[in-house]
Amino acid sequence: FVVAAVIAVVISQWKTLQPGQATVIGGLGVLAAAGITFFSQHLSRASEENRSQANLADQRARALHDRYAMANNQLAHESAAVRLGGVYALRSLADDWHSFGNDNERQVCIDLLRAQLRLPEKISAADAADPIASQGEAEVRQAIIQVIAARRLLPYDDPQSWTATNTDMSNSVLRGLDLSRLDLRGAVLINADLSGATLIDVIMSGATLIGADFSRAKLTGHADLSKENLSRATLTHADLMNAKLPCGDLTDANLTDAMLNKATLTSATCRRAIFTRAKLLGADLTNATLTGEAHLEYAVLSDHAKLIGADLTTAYLNHANLNYAALDSAILSGAHLDDAQMKCAHLTNASLTSA
Question: From CA 213, how far away is CA 251, in angstroms rounded?
Answer without folding.
Answer: 14
